[in-house]
Amino acid sequence: MAKMNFCPQCGKSLITKFKDDRERILCADEDDCGFVHWNNPTPVVAAIVEHEGDIILARNTAWPEGWFALITGFLEAGETPEEGILREVKEELNLDGEIVELIGLYEFHRMNQLLITYHVRAKGTIQLSPELLEYQRKKDYEINPWPSGTGKAVQDWQAKRGIFNEVIEFRK
């Protein structure tokens, strides 16, 4: 998020101060305005997409060559996480999905996100959205999890299946 300098409620300067045992951004006019930027994490849905017996990993157009990950996206207003991930699978891969299970909730501190991750079984013919450049098909045992974000979900999902692959670092 871009650094805020002025209060979005009253337009006065913002200050950094401890409130509720955390450093927060507040309006300098604490008495009359009282604005606090709580910096709550953004909920993001993610899916291990199973299609025709393979797991689909995708590469975003903004990522370096060789970087592939799970299908992810932001929730829309009024949407449940289950609705959101099925919409994302449809939008990004053009596949119709059904949720097999909730894998878990994961913190992604670098992006200030809370990842809600599912295993989704999908049908149809893959057609990538413009935000994806390419995809890979992998067997569940061929995926090496990565150390942050959705990689933790992959690691947990594999562990439930008796798969304990080495965690790898993304390389730029």
Automatic annotation (TrEMBL):
<dbReference type="InterPro" id="IPR029401">
    <property type="entry name" value="Nudix_N"/>
</dbReference>
<dbReference type="InterPro" id="IPR000086">
    <property type="entry name" value="NUDIX_hydrolase_dom"/>
</dbReference>
<keyword id="KW-0378">Hydrolase</keyword>
<dbReference type="Pfam" id="PF00293">
    <property type="entry name" value="NUDIX"/>
</dbReference>
<dbReference type="InterPro" id="IPR015797">
    <property type="entry name" value="NUDIX_hydrolase-like_dom_sf"/>
</dbReference>
<dbReference type="GO" id="GO:0016787">
    <property type="term" value="F:hydrolase activity"/>
</dbReference>
<feature type="domain" description="Nudix hydrolase">
    <location>
        <begin position="40"/>
        <end position="160"/>
    </location>
</feature>
<protein>
    <submittedName>
        <fullName>NADH pyrophosphatase NudC (Nudix superfamily)</fullName>
    </submittedName>
</protein>
<dbReference type="Pfam" id="PF14803">
    <property type="entry name" value="Zn_ribbon_Nudix"/>
</dbReference>
<dbReference type="InterPro" id="IPR020084">
    <property type="entry name" value="NUDIX_hydrolase_CS"/>
</dbReference>
